[in-house]
Amino acid sequence: MNLRMMFAATLVAASVLLAGCGDKKPEATASAEAGQSAAEQLQIEKYNLYVEVANSLTTSFSEAQENYLTGQMPLLEGKEAPTSMRIENDIWVDRSAKNLDTALAIDTPIVEIDAAAKDFSAALKTLSPLSHELNNYADSKGYLADNGDRARALSKDYLAALTLVAQKEQAFYKGLGDRDQALTKEAFEKAPKDSAEYYRAGMIYYGKVNSSDASELFATPNDAKALEAFEKSLAQVAETADGWNKKITEQSAKSGKSCSGGMLEINDFIGQSRSLIKDVKDGKYQGEETQMARMTHSTIRDAAMRYNSKYSKVIDRFNYPLC
After folding, report:
1. Closest C-alpha to 243, from 202, 273, 192
2. 274 — phi, psi (to 5°)?
3. Name one Pfam family in it (predicted).
4. Cβ distance 188 to 205 under 8 Å?
5. SS3 string of 68-114?
6. Is residue 312 situated within a structural domain?
7. pLDDT in tens, 73-100
8. Which of 69, 132, 229, 305 is the most buried (most CB within 10 A)?
9. 3-class secondary-structure state, position 322
10. Are residue 166 and residue 246 in the same domain, yes or no?
11. pLDDT at 101 over 90
């Protein structure tokens, strides 16, 4: 399991959507947005294209590489025909490269991301012909016709190309994460204190900090410092969530329209995270240290998946509010 990717797919989209449920933008804010320079608009467009590339991948190329290495390669080691074959993300190889190139063609720099995006695109183009050939081979069950010989012949080059893509993908996500964290922090610091916008931005910012802390905790569940950091950022999420809930309740009372503001998902996430803290303190994960990517099953791996699922639902609710 690639923990960085687990969070990357859910972290990168939220920071540009910070208007609170029922909030009206101040006139000064509206005027500032109206006067936004063409360069700033282009940068937003470019950033959002990068975000789209990341969020379109349900399975990361890092996960696809891991799955091929652990699931497909063993089937090709013998002389008998493989019983099954699957090439993941083939449809996204060319699409992702095209979207990256579209973003790169926008003539305004995003220094945290551009170089990594260019390298990611180049690696995808190297992977493309190998992926397509093996995908067609797998879909047509060519391995039953030639005993898997074609797959064996291509597998080494395919795995090397996929591994390079996975490496470049991670660098791309790091750039996105750095940019996203900076934008989120800026939005939080600039929001009017004690406003719905302030608390919403705070939840998103501290949520991102918490997800980073969670990555460290899942890698080293018996590290006291990792647990302390996770507890601290979760408390900050809970504090801003409480402020958000109060503002949403006030707005609902004034407007006469009910709006939960996503508190169901938020409370579910906080509750799950508090259960995780209790499990760590109770010693549930004693002996489970690092190397999660090599494990097909473990209690800490399951905990990581539950955390990611709950956090993803919070981000989805903020990105697609119901009110």
Report:
1. 202
2. -70, -35
3. DUF3829
4. yes
5. HHHHHHHHHCCCCCCCCCCCCCHHHHHHHHHHHHHHHCCCCCCCCCH
6. yes
7. 999 998 888 999 999 999 999 999 999 9
8. 229
9. coil
10. no
11. yes
294 vs 2: CA distance, rounded Å: 10
10 Å Cβ neighbour count for 283? 10
Could you tell me if residue 32 is inside a domain? no
CB 85 within 8 A of CB 75: yes
What integer is the mean pLDDT of 172-186? 89
Spatial distance between the Cα atoms of 126 and 148, rounded to a whole number of angstroms: 23
DSSP state of 36: -
Query: Which residue has tokens 């609902």?
Result: 252
How big is the chain, counted in residues?
Answer: 323
Domain membership flag for residue 75: yes
Parent domain of 50:
37-182
Domain shared by 46 and 15, yes or no: no
Question: Cα-Cα-Cα-Cα dihedral of 162, 166, 169, 173, to 10°?
Answer: 160
Tens-digit pLDDT profile for residues 227-261: 999 999 999 999 999 999 999 999 889 988 888 88
Q: Report which of residues 23 and 169 the model is more confident about.
A: 169
Please indicate, yes or no, whether residues 229 and 202 belong to a single structural domain of this protein.
yes
Task: Look up residue 292 and give its DSSP letter.
Answer: G
Structure confidence at residue 182 as a pLDDT band (50, 70, 90): confident
3-state helix, strand, coil in the chain (%, to 5): 75, 0, 25
